[in-house]
Specification:
The chain is mainly beta and 167 residues long. The protein is 8% helix and 26% strand.
């Protein structure tokens, strides 16, 4: 029982802002009176997550926004990325948003910014936030999709992916 409580505490403490936990309303008994019919879902009923919506720039998610278009591999320059780093890129919002598969781990969160935008290429710096000193973090690696806004649609420009030190 104590182990289960500790595990639950760890899982909820590590939950990010995109992860929610269902909690019963405070101070009430959720059981319906005998003989009545309840039309609201019971607390034990599973709650389905909302369907994916457009990903605002700067907010990581696990899935690519619906309707995104993959950037062809020949239009992605990932030579500056470390070995094993993902190099998947999509466009959305008429080509003015790049949706990029990034890498993050532990308490860090993936970040991306369009560092340079020219007529023939867009340079995107990928980084990760630093963990607070003394904070315990998990040793996992995640691959969220981050969005980076562009000044103009990507069209035929090449996406150059680079990494920068954690911020």
């Amino acid at each position: 029982m104590v182990g289960t409580g500790a595990l639950l505490l760890m899982v909820t403490a590590c939950a990010g802002p995109d992860m929610s936990t269902a909690q019963p309303a405070a101070g009430g008994d959720s059981a319906a009176p005998t003989g009545s019919v309840s039309t609201s879902p019971s607390p034990s009923a599973s709650v389905l997550p909302a369907p994916p919506t457009a990903n605002p720039p700067g907010k990581p998610r696990l899935t690519v926004p619906e309707g995104s278009t993959p950037v062809p591999p020949g239009k992605i320059d990932a030579t500056a990325l470390p070995s094993g780093f993902p190099h998947e890129v999509w466009t959305s919002n008429g080509g003015t948003v790049l949706d990029i598969r990034a890498q993050e781990g532990g308490c860090g969160h993936a970040l991306g910014e369009a560092a340079e935008q020219t007529a023939d290429h867009v340079v995107v710096n990928l980084s990760e936030t630093k963990a607070q000193t003394g904070q315990m973090c998990t040793m996992d690696i995640r691959y969220p999709v981050i969005s980076v806004a562009l000044a103009a649609p990507l069209d035929q420009r090449t996406v150059v992916l680079k990494t920068t030190p954690p911020k």
